[in-house]
Structures are given as structure tokens and as C-alpha cells.
Amino acid sequence: MRLEQNLQTRLELSHVLLQRLDLLLLPLLDLRQLVEQAIEQNPVLENDTEKENEESTEKEEKVEPTEDFEDWDSYPKSSEVTEKKEELPIPAPPPTLKESLILQSRLTFTEERLLKISECIIYELNEDGFLTSSTKGIAEILNEDEETVLSVLRKIQTFDPVGVGSRDIKEYLLIQLHLKHDTPEVAFEIIEKHFEDLVHSNSEKILESMNITQAELDEVIAHIKLCNLKPGAGMGGEIRYVLPDLTLQRVDDNGQAVWIVYPNNEWIPKLKLSKLYLNMLHNKDDLVDKDAGKYLRQNIATAKLLIEGIEKRRETINKIAGFIKDSILDFLDNKTRNFNFVTLEEVGAAIGRNPSTVSRAIQDKWIQTPYGLLTLKSFFSMHKPKAYTEVTKRLQEVVSGEDKKHPLRDDQILSILQNEGFKLARTTVVKYRTLLGIPPGHKRKQ
């Protein structure tokens, strides 16, 4: 047995940073609940309802930045939020699908690199639990090889609910059927080779190609009918109320119409530090014992952190929304049909934030627009897609030049477009085809 002494450098995450990170991630409704709860629990915090002498009040009670915090880009990743939180209680609504998966991910992946990949995959899932981005795109964003991303994705697909992270219904069905011990082997071959025929009930073609009986096909169909169609079904399906953090509106500025984005600050109580307790702390004669002074200093520090965090959260979200607005001005003014999606890297470089910070900031954040209530994330794309008009024009050309006796399926159209440099998903092809009024392949057959 030998004793050794090693010198290690390790980054310790302060409680301050963990609390700040929570404020950035919180939706507006949850932030409002947190602030109301903080006012109840912290005697130093007060709801600033005074409208008079605002300037003097702000100068008098200006909150100086704490020494524990320097820059938001030094924040820990969400995977690092493991410390116990007591000073700033976070509302705990029933876990959503992504929250549940993040927890399972932290219990599964011990390597930081793999955990980062898993979180990126989980954030790219839609409400139904399907992966909306390509593994290649995720690999490029994270500077990883695609095979590693695929291995992490396969592991996530074993989480609860099983099959979450599937890239389409076909893959989701195969995952479910592989878990059933009584699934006929022919079922996998039918789904792999004749999925479209199966969807459109082209039984004769399947029977002829596979050389099986109707009874065998009926058995396969019976197994498939027992499968779910949405990996995320039953998770996070409860009614969820949201408040928009921002509003996008067109206003008249000296006879000229301009678009502005303004924060909905009225939903969050304006906070200030209690003059009574501040004076009590500064006047040592008013303090009977040291414990009272320690109690006040702790609560004042916590209150300052909350006020600073809310302001920094608001500033970051406002900058992101401002960049998005500037990027889609031509679309808003009907000068083009091209909706200019933005990327995390673009926004991060423009506002001086790390892309990972931007990614966290847009989670569950909403903006009220003339087109309805939208998530900030809906303005982002993993890649910079080619212009909408360019994609739709080429899609029309592909369909026009197809063999009408054997029309192209959506996945075939996708393959053609991808080979020409268009970075699209199959769902995007279906969406654009529908917008152009082009029916699916089996209905175009002549």
C-alpha cells in the first residue's frame, strides 16, 4: 500500500452560477411564480409599486454586480446543475418529455462529451418525441463524428418512453417490434422494403413481392396495430399555460412603419431592496446580535442575485429577439417569401454570447407576433437552408419531370434535393409539397 499526493485543478461551480442558469432557462410564467415566492420568503425583497421619484430610488438602491459572477458565457451547462438549490426555489411542474429525458441522460452518460451530445439531441426533439434534425447536422454543430452521435441516439432510443428520438415513424415501428419477442421476422422486411405500400394498404404489391400469404400479412399488420405512432405520447400532454416574454409589433414612427420587439415586463413584479432592512444593516446600533446581521446579509445577497439575474435574463432574450427581427424584416414587410432562419452561431456572434448560452436562452420562450404566438426556437435552424423560393421551385421541377406511371415518393424527392445541396428533412419536403398543392406520390400516379 502506497500513499500518493496529487495536485488537481478542478472547476467548482458556485451556487450563484447555478441559480443564474435556472433563471435563464425558466419560462416567463415559472419566473413569475419564482419571484412571487421569493418576495414571500425573503423579507429584504419588496415589490416596487412606487411610481414617484423612480430615478432617485434607482440611484439609491442600485444593485452592484457581485464578485461571484463575471460573464454569462462562463455559465455551466445544464448537465452540470446538480447542486441542491435552497435560496431560490424553482417551481416544479410535472416533468415534460425533455425534462424526463435529460434526467435519464445524466444517469446514463458519465462522460461530459457524450452528455453534451445527448442534450443536443434531446433539445432537437419535437412534441411527439421525433428527432427533427439530422445526426450529421448535430455532429457538425458539436464538432463530433456522426457515428458517435448515432451511438448516443441509439442509447436515447432505449430510454423511457422507448423509441423516443426516432427520426420517422418507420424507425419507431421497427424499434417497438424488435422489443416484441413474438414479432414475425417477415414484419421487419415488410417495413424496411414496403413501408409506403403498407401505409397506403397496397396489399397486392406486398404479397406479390414478398411471396407470402394473406394470413401472414394480416399477422404482421396485427402486430403493427399494437404499436404506438408517437414516441412522446402521454408525456407532457397536460395543458400548459405560457406567457410571451416578448411582443413583435408594427408601429408608426413619424409616418414610417417600423417593427419593434419589446419585453412584456409587466408580468414580472419589479423588485427592490427594503430600505428598512438596509438601514438596519448599516446602522449597527439597531442590531441586537450578530446572528441578525448575518441573516440580513445573506438575504440581501440572495435578493441582489435574483434582481441581477432577472435583468441579465431579460437583456439576453431581448438581444436574441432583436437579431431575429432584423433577420426577417423583408419577410415581415412582404418583400420576399423567403423566411430567413437563423443559427445559434450567428446569434451568439452578433450578441456576444456563446451558442450554448443562446440555446439555453430560447428554450420555452415565446413571442407574440402578428402571425400568432410562436416559440423563439421556431426561428432557428441547425443549418442555413437555401431560400424557400429556390427549394420550392426545384421541388416543382422534380415532380414535373417524374415518370407519371411511377411517381416519386417523398423520400426519393428528398434524396434528389439533398444530392443537389439542399439541406432538408423529409418533413420539410412534405410541408413544401403540401403548400404547393402537390398531392402525394400514390395520388399522382397515372
Structure description:
With 446 residues, this protein is α+β, with helices and mostly antiparallel strands. 50% of the residues lie in helices and 7% in strands. It has helices at 15-25, 28-41, 54-60, 97-108, 112-123, 135-142, 146-156, 169-179, 185-199, 203-210, 214-225, 275-282, 290-327, 329-332, 344-351, 355-361, 388-400, 410-419, 426-435, 441-444; strands at residues 45-47, 246-253, 256-263, 271-273, 366-369, 372-375. The strands form two sheets. It has a four-stranded mixed beta sheet with strand order 3-2-5-6. The chain has a two-stranded antiparallel ribbon with strand order 1-4. Strand 5 (366-369) and strand 6 (372-375) form a beta hairpin. Helix 1 crosses helix 13 (290-327) and helix 8 (169-179) packs antiparallel against helix 9. The longest helix is centred in the last third of the chain and has 38 residues, at 290-327.
